[in-house]
Amino acid sequence: MTISFAPESATSAAPLSFAAHIDAAMPRGLRKEADAMSFETFLAEYAPSSGPLRLGNWTCTDGDRPASRLGPQARNYQATIAVGDRISTSNAAAAGPIAALTAMLHERGIAVETTAFHQLPAGEETATFVRGSDGLRSEWAVGLSSDPTQSALRAVIACANRLLAAA
Question: Where is the 2-isopropylmalate synthase LeuA allosteric (dimerisation) domain (predicted)?
Answer without folding.
Answer: 33-164
